[in-house]
Amino acid sequence: xxxxxxxxxxxxxxxxxxxxxxxxxxxxxxxxxxxxxxxxxxxxxxxxxxxxxxxxxxxxxxxxxxxxxxxxxxxxxxxxxxxxxxxxxxxxxxxxxxxxxxxxxxxxxxxxxxxxxxxxxxxxxxxxxxxxxxxxxxxxxxxxxxxxxxxxxxxxxxxxxxx
Length: 163
Description:
4-stranded antiparallel beta sheet; AsnC-type_HTH_dom; transcription; DNA-binding; elongated; Alpha-Beta Plaits; alpha+beta; sequence-specific DNA binding; Dimeric_a/b-barrel
């Protein structure tokens, strides 16, 4: 996946505010609205822009309990890993899930309306899964930063031909 300096600037802009119009983005990067729309369409189709989302306050929607959970598997086999990945993707309580190296095999960001609801989730998701050796929960006291913005490396000039 390749992009040029203008694409990099567009990516920086839409990560901060994806509700801007193509006209507004175009003005900021020196392009027409049509040229900006073409670039955004290409960035999406090439998978550079994976999704456009809103960050919702868990507390505002009745899920004030937030946890980071370190999950350890009984053994690391591809079928076991794939099953847990599928379970993570299908669980509404799991907001983010990462397959990682180190002491744990997965790290999950989980929200719940109450500790009782989280306990029920742990029974259903962890205790009933024979592939899970154990899990450790860290309760989030304060969400200091929330976002998905990735620093965009600006390529050198003339990396791509005119688009």
